[in-house]
């Protein structure tokens, strides 16, 4: 089991969140959901995407950004934001075993205060003219690189 965590800022789409929860269960990564989400955590679409993996995930729900930040800053973990506004490609970032990988809302990303509060901002380089990669795919790519760099600790 890894100490790396995936945090989802006010996720909109239960299918994406469910896919990330399934990924996390399989890789031993914890997940933090920063409320409010655009759906109820018991939503059937979330359960369909995460299948029977939901019970295997170290899932923590935070009532809002301030509650999440209070937990994170108290734990001493770095916040690594995946953003299309970042300049550093994720494969050039030096991950640590206890990083929190933050992914924004599918519809709007994260607000400026969250963006500015991150310890690092990384991006997945894309072909010119494309807007973004699906959040679940982004989480898989970045979590995979973080785990590779930290030797799956």
UniProtKB/TrEMBL annotation:
Single GO molecular function: methyltransferase activity
UniProt subcellular location: Cytoplasm
GO-annotated biological processes: methylation
Residue span, tRNA/rRNA methyltransferase SpoU type domain: 4-142
Entry-linked Pfam families: SpoU_methylase
Catalytic activity: 5-carboxymethylaminomethyluridine(34) in tRNA(Leu) + S-adenosyl-L-methionine = 5-carboxymethylaminomethyl-2'-O-methyluridine(34) in tRNA(Leu) + S-adenosyl-L-homocysteine + H(+); cytidine(34) in tRNA + S-adenosyl-L-methionine = 2'-O-methylcytidine(34) in tRNA + S-adenosyl-L-homocysteine + H(+)
Residues that hold S-adenosyl-L-methionine according to the record: 104, 124, 132
EC top class named in words: transferase
Protein's name according to its UniProt entry: tRNA (cytidine(34)-2'-O)-methyltransferase
Source organism of this protein record: Pseudorhizobium tarimense
Record gene name: trmL
């Amino acid at each position: 089991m890894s100490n790396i965590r995936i945090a989802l800022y006010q996720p909109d789409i239960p299918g994406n969140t469910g896919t990330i929860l399934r990924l996390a269960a399989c890789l031993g990564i914890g997940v933090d959901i920063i409320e409010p989400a655009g759906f109820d955590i018991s939503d059937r679409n979330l359960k369909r995407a995460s299948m029977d993996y939901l019970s295997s995930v170290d899932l923590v729900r935070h009532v809002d950004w301030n509650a999440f930040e209070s937990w994170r800053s108290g734990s001493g973990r770095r916040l690594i934001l995946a953003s299309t506004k970042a300049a550093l490609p994720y494969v050039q970032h030096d991950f640590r075993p206890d990083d929190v990988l933050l992914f924004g809302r599918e519809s709007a990303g994260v607000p400026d205060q969250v963006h500015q509060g991150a310890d690092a901002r990384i991006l997945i380089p894309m072909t010119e003219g494309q807007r973004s990669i699906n959040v679940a795919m982004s989480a898989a790519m970045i979590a995979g690189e973080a785990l590779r760099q930290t030797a799956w600790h």
